[in-house]
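hi got a favour to ask and not much time before my train. below you get a single protein, a line of residues and a line of whole numbers that encode the local backbone shape. could you go over both lines and see whether the tokens make sense for that sequence. a few lines back from you is plenty, here it is:
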Amino acid sequence: MPAAASSQENTGSNPKLKKVGAEMKGEREQDQNRSKDERPFKYLAGDRTIGVEMSQSATVASAAAEFIAEGERASVREPLNRAYFRRPGERPAFLVLRDGREERPTLREDAGAMPAGPCLIRSGEWLLAPEVNGLYASWLFSETVEQEERILQRIYYRLRASAAALLDSADGLWAAVMLPFMPELADQPARLAALQDAQLEALFAAVAERQRLGGDCRVDLLAPYPASAAEFAAQREFIEGVAEQTLGHAYAAACRIGAVIPPDVERTAAGEIARIADFLVLDGAAGEAAPEDAAGGFAQAAEEILAAARSVKPAAALLAAGAPAAYALADLYRIGLSGIFCSAGQRTEALLRAACLTWIARQDHADTAAGGRL
């Protein structure tokens, strides 16, 4: 009794203990009220449709996040001599790749890891940079052969610096570099060849320097707009010749060389080019129509060119580039293209759309495998 009395006296005299007891009592009352009335996560039968839609949306969002994460990070380590190909019997992943007409990151995020596909680099744009454009204009209007050669040598050093910057960036892990195609030189093939030779030599010199320092890089080349298989064969031989002179026979033999073709290319020619090219890029960037207006015609051209290419080479890889490609993504996915190159402004939306299309295709495949039963 004295101990009990002492305990009561201590409790009564300690205001902190009184406060704790009151809080515990209040929490018990709140729990009882919540269990009777609130039930915040319970929905009625009429809400089931909304719940299903929310669940599906969450699944698509999760797939989109996974698709984007996979596209952004270099998670697959592969040898640098991997070819462009399609595995027979299964649909390859639809790639949403970077178009290099955007500011490149200065540092690599994960050295030694390969991205899912190359970044498209239009090297002709290097000639439009402020530090090169003046030299290029002077070269175009040079009055003597000696002056022309001297200015071209200066251009070479500028191009080599641009190539080194590319290989030091994340895009340099795997780049598909399109040789310069300058409209003002369309009727001067000898001067265009000289400019392309300087570009190739600068690029391969930068590759050699990076290899000497122990760095990883993969550079594939793209011949610009060949009109026939014979024209592409000549461009390929030219590229391989410069590669062999600069980096040796082994590198030249392993170098992957593709072609950039316009939507209006002759279909038979496209098939013959595909036969001897490692990959094709259908370029919609040169069109004058608004991208959203050109998307329908671009998709139609892609379907016809893909059919022509795979009629002679079933494993042919065809990617699309330019603004119309992003607008026509759903159609390009449906007809079986390997992927698209996107500008920075279009890439996030393209990744989301590709993720949704991939998720829908997987669900359809699962339903078919289950005999159509849900």
